[in-house]
Amino acid sequence: MSMLTPPGMGGKYRVTGAAYPRMSRPRRRRRIVFTLLGAVLGLAVLGYGSLQLIHVFRGEGGSAKQGGATAAKHCPSNGPKPVAAPASAAAVALPQPGEITVNVYNATQRAGLAKAVGDELKKRGFAIGHVGNAPADFDKKVPGTGLLVGSAKTDKAAYAVLGTQIEGDSQQNDAREGADIDLILGDAFKDLSPKEAADKELALLAHPQPVPAASC
Known about the structure:
The chain has four helices and seven strands; from the N terminus they run αβββαββαββα. The chain is an alpha/beta fold. The strands form two sheets. A five-stranded mixed sheet has the order 4-3-7-5-6, with helices on one face. The protein is rod-shaped and about 115 Å long. The two termini are about 90 Å apart.
């Protein structure tokens, strides 16, 4: 072996002339791979962060704040939409009991029922017209608690006000011209609604409660 033969070559290569065989170091491929992976990961993180910033500025972020207040919760597109309830419902103009003339008729077999009910309604402020037994078309033919009969032109609010005084009443129109209303007491009638309950129902008619907001 020549003294000029590089160690470990086992005499395979011979040096001729002034040039030596080039001994290059192994390429560090692992470092290159890790460097590329790091670059790709960094670009992905940067892109995701940019997308989140866009959502925040557009007000789409769940925790983004606009005007110092937390962004409102959104319902699913196919779910119920939130409905804002008004702070208070507008008052409804109702006729006073004294503006409603009531004719009280007894269609039952209980003697003196029409007079007793008429007297109580008068105490509660209603104007009382005729009192007596029901006409033949209704006598013993009203199975419910009571029937309110009036003109088709009668204010519906008047029916509602009188209806607060009796549970389970029904309504019917006839050909009369006046605004008076007949209260025909039926077989199921026991007594008028307690005054406290009737007053509470009348107050709800005059001041309806706002409808609560729907939740998602």
